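Teaching assistant here, posting this on the class forum so everyone can see the example we discussed in section. The complex has two components, and the goal was to see what a joint structure prediction looks like when all of them are supplied at once.
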Amino acid sequence: MTTLLRISDLVLETGSAEAPLRPVSHVGFEVSHGEAFGLVGESGSGKSLTLRAVTGLLPEGVRQAGGTLELERDGVLRPYRFAEARGRGIGMIFQEPMTALNPTMRVGDLVTAGPRARYGWSRGTARSRALDLLAEVGMPDPKAQARMWPHQLSGGLRQRVMIAMALATEPSVLLCDEPTTALDVAVQDQILRLLHRIRVERGLAIVFVTHDLGVVRRLCDRVAVMYAGQVVETGRVDDVFTRPTHPYSAGLLRSMPTPDTPRDRPLAAIPGGQPGAGERPEGCRFAPRCAHALPACAGLEHALAPVLGSPSRSACLRVADLGGPPLDRKALIV
Amino acid sequence: MSAAPLLQVDDIVVNYRSGPSAVDHVSLAIPRGRTLGLVGQSGCGKSSLARVIAGLAVPASGTVRLGGAVLPTPRGRADATRIQMVFQDPGSALNPMHTVRRTLTELLLVHRRAPDRRAATDRAVELLELVGLGANVLDARPRGLSGGQRQRVGIARALAVEPEVLIADEAVSALDVSVQAAVLNTLRDLGSRLDLTMLFISHDLAVTRYVADELAVMHRGEIVERGLPDDVLRNPQHEYTRSLVAATPRMDGPALSAAEEARPL
C-alpha cells in the first residue's frame, strides 16, 4: 500500500507568540490508501486538533507553528492547499451531526451543496447524485428523506447524512472526529459497519479520532495513541491491543471495564490526570503518573523509536524492560 | 435477596405530551446496601424513571416506597434528602460561581448536617476525602477542576445530606476511560463502606455489569430483562438485550470482517 496522507512534525500553538502553549507538539503519522487509521486519546490529548489541522479547520486562536501536511497526487506526496483538499481529496465528518448540518436546508440539497457550488452540477444531476449517496449510506427511504429537514431525522440518520455529504466530493480519505460518540451502542455499531463497508467498496482511507478503544479495535488497522499533545505509541491495532509498548496505552487498556473484567477487585485506574497544555512536565509527559518511571524519564526527549521484537514504535524509555514475552500483559506490571 | 427491599418502585407510568409512555408500568426493588444497574439506550425512559424516583418529576401513576413507606411527590422537607442524584455532566450540575467549599458547606448548613460554618467545613473536608479528593480543592471553582474531580465533587455533594439511596444517572459517561475507572472504584468503595443503596444508570453494559449486583435492561419504557449481571451478559434472554450484548465492543473481540459487511445495516 502506498502512502496517501503524511503528517510530519505537526506543532500547534495557542496564546501569545512570546509564551505560546502547544496543545500539539511534533505529531506525525502516515495513512496508506484504503487504510483505517485510529487516532486515540483522552480529552485534551490533542487528537481532535490534529485532525482539524489536517483539514485547515483549526479553531480560532490555534495556529500551526510547524510541520508539514502532504497528500498523494499522481503518485507523489506533496503539500496541499486546504480549500483544494476539502473539495476533493479529504472529506470530514464530525461528532455532532445536528450542529454540522445546516438546519435551513433540506437533506437532499445539503448532501450535494458542496459539489454543486464547486462543479456547477445542474439541479437534476445534483438530485440524482443525492439519492445515490443517501442510498449508499443506508438511508431507509432516500426519496422521502431527501425532502426532510435535518431536525426530522434521528441522530443515527443525521450521521449518515453527514457521511453522504463527505462522500459527495469523492474523497480519498475520510476524517472522522468522534462520529459515534453521541450515539447509542446499537446505532454506533451500525455506523461503524457502514464506514467499514464504504471503505471496502470505495477503497477509501479513514482516519478515526476517538477516545473509545473498543471502536478502534473494531474498525481500524493501525493506531496512534496520543497523550498530552504527543503520539506515545503507534502500531498495528492487533499489536498495540495485545502487546502495548507504552505504559499509558497499557494503562488505558486495563482501566476500561469489559464484559470479562473481574468484579471482585478495583479497576486498574491510572492515578492522576492528563496535564493541560500549560502544565506539562519536562521529559516524558506521562512519567508523573507512571508506575515504571525512572529519574531518567524526566530528561527524556520525545521520540518514537522502533521496538525490538514488535512492529510497534514507542516513546517509552523503558520499553525494553516492559516488553516481556508476547501476549503477556502482566509483564507491564512491575 | 430475601430481606425486604429498601427501595421499592411499583408500576410507574410517565407520559409526555405525545407518543407512547416514556415509562410504561415499571416496577423494581433494591435491597439495602445493594446496587441495581439499569441499562438502556438514550430515550428508553431510564432518566425519566430516575427523576420520578428522586422526586424530581411526578409520575402519571405508581408509587415509590422507601423502607416500606410511600414517598409523596413532591417530596416534603423530611423526605427531600433521602434519595440523591449524581448527574452526567459534572460541569453544568455545579454552580460555576461557587467554590467547592461554598457548594458543600451551604448544603450542610441548610440541611442542618452541621451546627456552624466551622463544623461544616470540617465535614466538607471529610466528604472530599471520602470521594478521593482533599482540602486542597476547597477553594477551587468548577472550572478549575478536572472532569473527574468535578464528578467527585458532585458525588460528595449528593452524599453530604446522608441519603439512603444514591442514583447515579450516566455519572461516568462524560469521563475519560482512565478517570472513569477511578470514579467507578470510588462509587463501589462507597457502596460497601457506607452501606449505600444505589441505582446505577448507564448505556454502557460493561461498565454497569462491573458495579451492579443486579442488572435490569430497559427498552422503550419497559424493563425487558433482569438478572445477575454475568447471567444477563452471557445468556441474554430478550432480543433487545441480545442486540445490546452483540453491539458492546470487546477488547478481545473480532474486528469488522467481510461477514459483517453482509449483515444488514
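For the discussion questions: Chain B has a mean pLDDT of 88. Residues 24 and 222 of chain B are 6 Å apart (CA to CA). Think about how each of these relates to the inputs above.
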